[in-house]
Structure formats: structure tokens, C-alpha cells
């Protein structure tokens, strides 16, 4: 029986845009937002919609300063969008939505603010509202690639892979250097079982930003599916060099090693994954399987 994976979103792929022209910024290597992942196979989905930094002592000061800017410029949509982004990074999504709403009220063609509000809605489980805002952002600016990426990730979780692929191909045409767009499209190809296409897209994502863990993990998962276990282990090692606390990467590494016949190191990887997440099914099944096997000898 073939082990399968839930292919997660880019863990560090994007942030709320704090300016009119900046992409909303599904930009690799910085903290924050992308859509919640769907489930494909045995890995439980993780809710990597936002990485919230509530420990930053400057954040409250920053929000206070931005409130002063808004008091001085109450008709400036950029000021509301900027403060909304600051609220979102603190996990204050209700406040963020109110500010993004004010931004688009002042400027109904403000694509970044619509996309930011969509991302905040995704964090609070309001996927229908998020879909509407991603589409509204695209209507406001047909060349705003982050809105296509955000909508595609949401479409993928709903199983609409054809439209997701269309959105991501459009995002790549707009910005061929958008590593997160290639990663997101690779995830769609994985969902379709088109692992060679997925590997090519993950290659492109890694070429554009080699310092993010998620594309290595995802590519390793596809490499397992096509039987390239040595290369898969290399990718999981690379992923873990960036983020050593990723249960999915440890579990997948265990599976690749087990497929190679290296059961001792495989068991260690499965156990490491379990120490991080007791809910990791691939790790739990691997430990049980290898423990039974060892008891036979």
C-alpha cells in the first residue's frame, strides 16, 4: 500500500502588503500568509495561514504610530492598509479586516487591500468571503499576481484544480520570478498525481529562493512517489537544515529511508517526527510497522 502525503502550503510565503504598489506579498522567505492547506493522503493539514508574531515589543508601538498617521490622514487608504497589515501580523484579524475594509471603501480599486482582507478572512475560516475578495482584487487589477496565487491556493483546497492551475499560470506569466507561484502550482500537480510536473515546479521555486524549507519537503514527497529515494532524502535534509522542527519532513524522510531499506535511520526519523507531533500519521504508522518488524527477529 502506497503512503501518501498532505502537501502543505508554503510555510513562509508571503505577508500582508503594507503599501499600495507592493505585492501582497506572497514573497518567499518572509513571515506570514498563505491559504490553509487541503488534505492529500495521510498527513493531517496544518493551518499555515499566518505566522503571528505576538512577542515583538515594537509591534504595539508601530500600531500606535500608524494610528497617529491615520488621525492625520483619515482619507488615506494606504494608511489603513498599512495598519491593517500590522494588526494582522499580531493576530488581531477583526481589527485588520476593519482597516482593510476602510481602505477599499476609500479606494474601491485597491487590489492589495482586497487581497489582504481575503488573507485575513482565510485566517478566520471565512473562505467564501476570501474567494470574493481575491476575485475583486483581480477585477481591480488584472495584473496583480498575489491575488491569483491566493485564489489558487483556496481553489486547490476546494478541489478546483483546473482553475487553480489557470490562476497560477497567469501569476507566473505576470511575474516569472515568483517562487511561491511555482511552489503553489507544484502543489496542485501533486494533488493531481502529476509528480514529474510537480518536481519541475518545485525545482523552479528552489532556484528562485533556495532558503525556504517547504519546496524541499514538497519536492522530496514527489521524489518518493517516483521512486527516487536518495534524492528525496537529500531534499528532506535540506528542508530540515532550514527548519529542524517540521514533523512532516522528518516523517517523510523516515519513509524514504525505509524504502531504501535503512530501517534503523528510518525509525529514528519517525520517532523524531512523533516527538514533534503525536498526530503525524505517517510517523505513527512507520514506528508501529518497524517496531513489529523488529520484534520478528
Automatic annotation (TrEMBL):
Pfam families in the record: TPR_11, TPR_16
Keyword list, A-Z: Membrane, Repeat, TPR repeat, Transmembrane, Transmembrane helix
Sequence ranges of the TPR repeats: 77-110, 111-144, 145-178, 179-212, 213-246, 247-280
Bilayer-spanning residue ranges: 21-44
Domain of life of the organism encoding this protein: Bacteria
Keyword field contains Membrane: yes
Gene3D superfamilies in alphabetical order: Tetratricopeptide repeat domain
Protein name (database record): Tetratricopeptide (TPR) repeat protein
Amino acid at each position: 500500500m502506497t503512503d501518501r502525503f498532505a502537501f502543505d502550503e508554503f510555510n513562509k510565503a508571503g505577508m500582508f502588503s503594507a503599501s499600495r504598489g507592493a505585492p501582497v506579498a506572497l514573497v518567499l522567505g518572509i513571515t506570514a500568509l498563505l491559504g490553509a492547506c487541503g488534505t492529500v493522503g495521510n498527513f493531517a493539514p496544518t493551518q499555515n495561514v499566518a505566522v503571528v508574531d505576538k512577542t515583538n515589543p515594537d509591534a504595539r508601538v508601530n500600531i500606535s504610530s500608524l494610528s497617529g498617521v491615520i488621525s492625520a490622514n483619515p482619507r488615506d487608504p494606504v494608511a489603513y492598509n498599512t495598519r491593517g497589515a500590522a494588526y494582522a501580523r499580531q493576530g488581531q484579524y477583526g481589527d485588520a479586516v476593519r482597516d482593510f475594509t476602510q481602505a477599499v471603501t476609500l479606494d474601491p480599486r485597491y487590489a492589495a487591500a482586497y487581497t489582504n482582507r481575503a488573507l485575513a478572512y482565510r485566517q478566520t475560516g471565512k473562505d467564501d468571503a476570501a474567494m470574493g475578495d481575491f476575485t475583486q482584487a483581480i477585477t481591480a487589477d488584472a495584473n496583480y499576481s498575489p491575488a491569483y496565487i491566493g485564489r489558487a491556493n483556496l481553489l486547490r483546497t476546494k478541489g478546483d484544480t483546473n482553475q487553480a492551475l489557470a490562476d497560477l499560470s497567469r501569476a507566473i506569466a505576470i511575474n516569472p520570478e515568483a517562487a511561491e507561484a511555482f511552489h503553489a502550482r507544484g502543489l496542485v500537480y501533486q494533488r493531481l498525481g502529476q509528480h514529474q510536473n510537480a518536481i519541475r515546479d518545485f525545482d523552479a521555486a528552489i532556484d528562485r529562493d533556495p532558503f525556504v524549507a517547504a519546496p524541499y519537503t514538497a519536492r522530496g514527497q514527489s521524489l518518493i512517489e517516483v521512486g527516487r529515494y536518495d534524492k528525496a532524502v537529500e531534499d528532506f535534509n535540506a528542508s530540515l537544515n532550514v527548519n529542524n522542527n517540521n514533523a512532516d519532513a522528518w516523517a517523510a524522510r523516515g519513509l524514504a529511508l525505509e524504502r531504501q531499506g535503512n530501517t534503523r535511520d528510518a525509525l529514528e526519523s519517525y520517532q523524531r517526527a512523533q516527538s514533534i507531533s503525536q498526530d503525524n500519521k505517517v510517523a505513527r504508522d512507520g514506528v508501529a510497522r518497524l517496531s513489529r518488524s523488529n520484534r520478528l527477529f
